[in-house]
Structure formats: C-alpha cells, structure tokens
C-alpha cells in the first residue's frame, strides 16, 4: 500500500508534464472504453428489439368459434422496411385482450399507428390507402420493436376478414418470429466487430498505458537504485497506469451514457433503439471497470520489468535487446490457416463455415492480425539495422539509428493505422457478401397476388395503376392425388403477346390468340409434359371437374425470363380469350410487373394497398425480413469501421503527441550541434513513414488473404476481390500521407537547452 501511495505522490508531485501525461492516458482510455461499451451493448439492443416483437406476437387458432375476435396480419415491404398491419374484428371473446402498447383493441374504422406511421401519413398521403379508417391513437413503446417501426392495428368487420382471419387466443411468444439478426449471423457480426474494433482497441489501450515509457522507466530505475524492491517498483508504476485506466474507464462509461442518449434521438440508418435498450448492464460495467485497469496492470508490469530488473542499464540508456521473434510465429501460424482455407477455393469443394471451421477460420484471421502487430517491431528493427549500416544519407542514418534503438516506440505510433487497413480489407469481404443479397439482379419487379381474393373490378384497377407495365395470370395444372406418379405437370401464363414481352427479357415467335408452348433454354420444362398432352387446370375447390383443358401444342415461343420472375419456368402461354373473366383456377396468381426502381416499387405497393387493403402481396425475389436484417448488419459494420477509424486515429494522435514530448531532449541536442530544422523534420518523417509503409504493405497482403478466407468459407460467389485492391491501396497511401504530415510538429520552433540539463 505504501508503494501505491508513493506512486500517487510521484504522479501528482513530479511536475506538470507527468500530470498532463496522466490525463492524456485517462482520456485515451476513456475513448477506448466508450467503444468497448458500445460493442458489448449491441447484442443487448438487438435482444430488446426481439423481446418486444415476441411479446406482441398474436396467439391464434384456425378454429373460429362463434363470437371470437378475429385477426389478420399482413406484412408488406415499404422500401427496405417491413410495414406490418394487423386487422382486428372484435367479437365477444377476448375483445378486451389488448396487445402491449395499446389499452384497447380498435373498433371498426379505427386505426392505431406507430409514431413513424403517423409521420408518414402526414408526409406521404398515399400511405392512407394502407390504413382504411381514421387514426385513433399511437402505439406505445412496449408494442414496438424499435422507434422507427412501421406498425398499425386496424379495426374492421368480421365479413371483411372472415375468409382468412384467425381467432385470437392471447398475445406473446417466447421467441421473436423474425429476429433483428439471426443468431448464426450475429456470430459473424461479433467476429467482424471484434476484428474491426476489439483488436485495435486492445492495442490502443496498451498504447495509452505505455505513454512516456522511457521517462517513466528512468524514474522507476532511480527508485530501484534507492533501494525499492522489484515488486515495489512495479507497484509504483501500477499506481499511475491503473489509476489512469480506472479514471478512463469511469469517464468512458459516462461518455457512452451521453452517446446513448444522443443516438436514441438521432439514431443510425436501419438501427434505432430506446434509451432503456442501451443502458449499461452490470456485465458491461464490470468488464469495463475491471478489464481496462487489468490490461493496464499487465502492460505496466511488463514495461516496468526492465527498470526493476536492471536499473543501471535503464539509467545509462544501454542498447536494448533485439525484439522477440515469437510474434512472427503467430503471424506464420495465422497465415498458414487462412492460406489453407483460400487454397480450397481452387478446388471443387471449397471449405465452409460449419463445424470446426466456425472456430478455426476466425482464429486464423485473429492470429494473423495479432501476429502482424507483434511482428512490426522486429521488422522495423531489422530494416533499421540494415539501412543504418549501408546508407550514406545523414537523414536516413539518423532516422534508422533511432528506430534501431527504439523499434517499439515507432511502431506504437503506426500500429493503429496498420490494423485499420487490415480491418478495412476484412470489412470489404463482409460488404461483398451483403451486396450479393441486396443488389438488384433484375431491371423489373414482379408482384404476385392470389387471384381468388380479387374481384374483376379490382383486377382492372390493379392493371391500371401508375407504374404497372403489364399484368398476367399464372396457374399450374391440377394434380389428381389418386392418379399415377407420372401424370404430366406444367405451369401456364395467361397473357397476350404484348404482355408477355413486357414480363420477360426476350421472346420470339409469339402469335396472339393461340395456345403456344413456352421454351426457356435456361429453365426446366414441365414434369413429363410433351406436345400433344392434355393439361388440366382445376377449379377453385380442387374437385375432379376441370375448368379448362389445354392441349400442349407443337408451336413454341422461345423466351428468356428475368431472374427472379413470376413467369420463370412457365411451359405454356394461354390467350386471355380462353379464360372467362370470372374464372378462378385453383392456385392461380395475378401478376403485375413494374420497374425495379425503389420509388416505383413503393408507388405500386401503395396503389395495390389502396385498391385492396387486406390483400396479400408477394414481391417476387424480395425477402423483406432478410433485407431488414441486412440493413442492420450494414449499419453495425459501418459503426465498427467508424469506431476502428476513430481508435486508429486516436492511437496515432496520442502516440505522436507522447513521442514529441519524449523526444524533445534528443531533438534539442542534435539541433544544438548544427542540424537544421528541415533535416530534423525529414528525420522524424522517415522514422515513421518508412516502417509504416512496410506495415501497410503487409496489412494489404495479409488483409486480402484474410478477406478471401472469409469469402471462401462463407460461400460467396466472389472469392478473390481484385476490385477492392485499388481502394485499399489509395487508403494506405492516404494513411501514409497523413502520418507524414502528423510528424512535422514533432520538431518545435523553440530550442530549450534546459531540456538537456534536465535529462
């Protein structure tokens, strides 16, 4: 305890410089702890989303006893978001059983909406078509997964939903029907955030704990020479590092609290939460308040080992030991793992992310990143030793001799930036996989609607909607359950030649008014259907009677469908004249098509809702829940990249500032013996930029290998991201340029000889 008190007295009584260094360590640590708390709270925010979504999920049954309350739920895409509408027809039973967020169920003509829907009704009146009735009130926070959710409860009558409505039993399930992020996907997000944030964060906190290591070691060596024990010397050092880390942890938690309050009001794209969702849990507080000081203790103990074991060498500034080689072993091990996975990409059976690969692949990438960091001092030392012996340039010689003496000091400045480039390459791989799901693969968008739920008037109105380019009916042959196994099966499109040409990419040989066979070379044909076979299309009840018998003709239309498309794989074209306006073949779908432009899709969906509010619309190829999850993943990834950038930049600023203070005596001494300020600036620049450039080159190579390993095991269509190399190259060049500019202030304009006397 006395050594700890001595450390505190030395900290606050040894001059302004030490106090500034202490608060710089605390400020840097607070930034790191704030980022750590944000990463640890992300799963908690997602769990809160899923918990409220599960609590409001209706418990229903298909049996509808007399007097039961009926529900019908519809979820439609609104851009990249889901718009959920729950139609409620109150009955005698469970009429008072309101869901979370509501005090009562809506009566016919009443609508309860979320705050975001309330704003949409004001800004976009077309949304009114989705909500037949007048707004009665707002849904409370307990009934919404997040503040921006599009959700509404609509009161209606039993006759309007009697065909599809289900009887209400209660509310709430133990799981969310559509989680914000699938558990398997969340594992990869944790891995990505760990690579983007936690690895640079650990390096950054270590950098903060080792600020002014040389000055501190000389002071500790003096105490050791005065008779303080080895452990006592380490406790004195711990007084500063642990107290700075503890103060930084407290400040960081406070910064996160402020950030949480701000972000809940401004939000992130596709990710919003309530303030209570992001509150600091006991686990997060414990990890931050214990983990940060504990890391500082181990780092401080390691940095004070030399001063405690060999104080004379520290006071006389002896030649340091060669950096350890075990960091290179980690790099080689990690590269061996990721290169092995990359090699499977050249085979017919590339590796996947199942089983042991789910642990081994992330471990290989993390070992590569950690090994890269730990190998940089050795590389810097070897390069400096070789160049200093061979160069005839005074600038290069001075720079390399300093890096030879203190290889770790220079690398602490550039490590954060090197890790930033490595993590950016890995983030590119994640973005590639997300882009493969979200990028539009077709210039058109098809919409499929059950034909049996539409009247002839509604069909006419839907076909006339603005933005609708064509319409058609798709149907499949009726299959006799007691028939033979090789009964012909085929799908048909009821449309004119003009409508067909707008539904597909290309068609050739179509003749209006005739039943014609469809032939798509890129799609399979009907099961066993041959020209001359009779194809039966069943009536709505599915009985043995047939509403239409079509003989598959010889005449064929060659066509190429979009992918995805509602008419992909169709086998026969039926003219509209062959089907009466009132016919409703079993399983038939009414298909509309429009441009795939987001605004156009939104306009068509609004129009469909205005014509038939309770209709079920399936946008072909659009998985709205999947799109929502991808949007959340992209947001989390962007947050991780921003935090990685902040941490990397902060590590550079903190290290460069500390290095400027530490080097004042050496810079002053060399300046007094005749070195010009321009020469000293060049020396400082070379000291940083040369090892940084080598580190960035290694980060580019290892990062691309790690990215390919991720893409191969993730089942991506792209294994080798060549297109991303120029972007990373420019980023690395920008990092080197910024670091070169950042070294210029290291040489001050004012020369103070007192610095040499103090040293």
Task: Tell me about this structure.
It is a single chain. The strands form 3 sheets. This protein has a 9-stranded mixed beta sheet. The protein is built from 22 helices and 18 strands. The chain has helices at residues 2-13, 16-55, 115-123, 158-161, 183-209, 213-225, 230-266, 282-303, 305-309, 311-315, 326-343, 357-390, 394-405, 407-438, 456-463, 497-503, 598-611, 624-662, 664-672, 677-713, 725-743, 754-758; strands spanning 58-61, 70-78, 81-89, 110-113, 134-138, 150-155, 166-171, 444-450, 470-476, 491-494, 506-508, 516-519, 534-538, 546-551, 556-560, 572-574, 589-595, 618-619. It is elongated. Strand 2 (70-78) and strand 3 form a beta hairpin. The chain starts with a helix and ends with a helix. With 759 residues, the chain is of the alpha+beta class.
Which helices and strands, and how do they pair?
Elements: H1 2-13, H2 16-55, E1 58-61, E2 70-78, E3 81-89, E4 110-113, H3 115-123, E5 134-138, E6 150-155, H4 158-161, E7 166-171, H5 183-209, H6 213-225, H7 230-266, H8 282-303, H9 305-309, H10 311-315, H11 326-343, H12 357-390, H13 394-405, H14 407-438, E8 444-450, H15 456-463, E9 470-476, E10 491-494, H16 497-503, E11 506-508, E12 516-519, E13 534-538, E14 546-551, E15 556-560, E16 572-574, E17 589-595, H17 598-611, E18 618-619, H18 624-662, H19 664-672, H20 677-713, H21 725-743, H22 754-758
Helix pairs in contact: 1-7, 2-5, 2-7, 2-8, 2-18, 5-8, 5-14, 5-18, 6-7, 7-8, 11-12, 11-20, 12-13, 12-14, 12-20, 13-14, 13-20, 14-18, 14-20, 14-21, 20-21
């Amino acid at each position: 305890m006395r050594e700890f008190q001595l450390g505190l007295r030395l900290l606050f009584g040894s001059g302004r410089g030490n106090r500034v260094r202490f608060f710089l360590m605390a400020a840097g640590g607070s930034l790191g702890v704030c980022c750590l708390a944000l990463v640890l709270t992300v799963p908690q925010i997602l769990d809160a989303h899923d918990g409220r979504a599960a609590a409001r999920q209706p418990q229903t049954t298909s049996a509808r006893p007399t007097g039961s309350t009926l529900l019908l739920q519809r979820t439609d895409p609104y851009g990249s978001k889901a718009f959920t509408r729950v139609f409620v027809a109150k009955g005698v039973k469970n009429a008072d059983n309101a869901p979370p967020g509501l005090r009562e169920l809506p009566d016919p003509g009443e609508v309860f909406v979320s705050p975001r829907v309330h704003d949409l009704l004001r800004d976009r009146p077309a949304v009114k078509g989705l909500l037949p009735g007048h707004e009665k009130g707002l849904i409370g926070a307990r009934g919404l997964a997040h503040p921006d959710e599009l959700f509404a409860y609509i009161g209606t009558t039993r006759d309007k939903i009697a065909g599809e409505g289900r009887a209400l039993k209660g509310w709430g399930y133990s799981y969310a029907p559509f989680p914000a992020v699938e558990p398997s996907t969340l594992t990869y997000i944790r891995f990505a955030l760990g690579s983007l944030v936690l690895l640079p964060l650990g390096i950054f906190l270590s950098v903060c704990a080792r600020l002014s290591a040389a000055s501190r070691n000389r002071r500790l060596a003096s105490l050791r020479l005065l008779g303080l024990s080895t452990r006592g010397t380490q406790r004195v050092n711990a007084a500063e590092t642990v107290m700075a880390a503890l103060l930084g942890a407290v400040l960081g938690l406070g910064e996160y609290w402020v950030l949480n309050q701000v972000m809940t009001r401004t939000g992130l794209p596709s990710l919003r939460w309530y303030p209570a969702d992001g509150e600091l849990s006991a686990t997060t507080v414990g990890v931050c308040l214990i983990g940060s000081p504990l890391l500082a203790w181990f780092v401080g103990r390691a940095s004070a080992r030399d001063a405690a074991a060999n104080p004379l060498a520290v006071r006389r500034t002896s030649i340091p030991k060669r950096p350890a080689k075990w960091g290179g072993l980690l790099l080689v091990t990690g590269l061996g793992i990721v290169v092995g996975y990359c090699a499977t990409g050249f085979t017919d059976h590339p590796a996947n992310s199942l089983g042991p690969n789910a642990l081994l692949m992330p471990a290989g990438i993390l070992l590569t990143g950690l090994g890269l960091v730990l190998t940089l001092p050795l590389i810097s030392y070897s390069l400096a030793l070789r160049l200093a012996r061979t160069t005839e340039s005074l600038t290069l010689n001075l720079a390399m001799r300093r890096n030879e003496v203190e290889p770790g000091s220079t690398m602490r400045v550039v490590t954060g930036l090197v890790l930033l480039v490595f993590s950016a390459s890995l983030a590119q791989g994640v973005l590639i996989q997300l882009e493969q799901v979200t990028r539009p693969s077709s210039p058109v968008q098809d919409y499929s609607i059950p034909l049996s739920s539409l009247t002839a008037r509604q069909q006419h109105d839907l076909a006339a909607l603005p933005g609708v380019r064509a319409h058609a009916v798709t149907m499949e042959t009726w299959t006799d359950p007691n028939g033979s196994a090789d009964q012909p099966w085929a799908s048909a499109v009821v449309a004119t030649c003009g409508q067909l040409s707008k539904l597909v990419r290309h068609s050739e040989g179509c003749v209006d008014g005739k039943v014609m066979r469809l032939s798509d070379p890129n799609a399979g044909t009907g099961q066993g259907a041959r020209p001359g076979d009779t194809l039966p299309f069943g009536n709505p009840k599915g009985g043995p009677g047939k509403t239409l018998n079509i003989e598959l003709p010889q005449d064929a239309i060659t066509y190429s469908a979009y992918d995805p498309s509602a008419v992909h794989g169709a086998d026969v074209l039926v003219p509209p004249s062959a089907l009466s306006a009132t016919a409703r073949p079993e399983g038939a779908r009414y298909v509309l098509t429009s441009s795939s432009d987001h605004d156009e899709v939104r306009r068509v969906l609004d129009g469909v809702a205005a014509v038939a509010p309770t209709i079920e619309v399936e946008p072909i190829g659009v998985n709205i829940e999947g799109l929502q999850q991808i949007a959340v993943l992209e947001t989390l990834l962007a947050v991780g990249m921003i935090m990685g950038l902040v941490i990397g930049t902060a590590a550079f600023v903190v290290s460069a500032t500390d290095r400027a203070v530490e080097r004042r005596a050496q810079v002053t001494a060399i300046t007094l013996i005749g070195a010009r300020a321009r020469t000293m600036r060049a020396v400082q620049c070379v000291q940083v930029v040369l090892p940084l450039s080598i580190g960035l080159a290694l980060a580019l190579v290892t990062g691309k290998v790690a990215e390919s390993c991720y893409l191969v095991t993730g089942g991506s269509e792209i294994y080798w991201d060549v297109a991303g190399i120029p972007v990373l190259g420019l980023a690395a060049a920008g990092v080197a340029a910024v670091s070169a500019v950042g070294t210029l202030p290291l040489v001050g304009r004012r020369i103070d000889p007192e610095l040499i006397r103090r040293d």
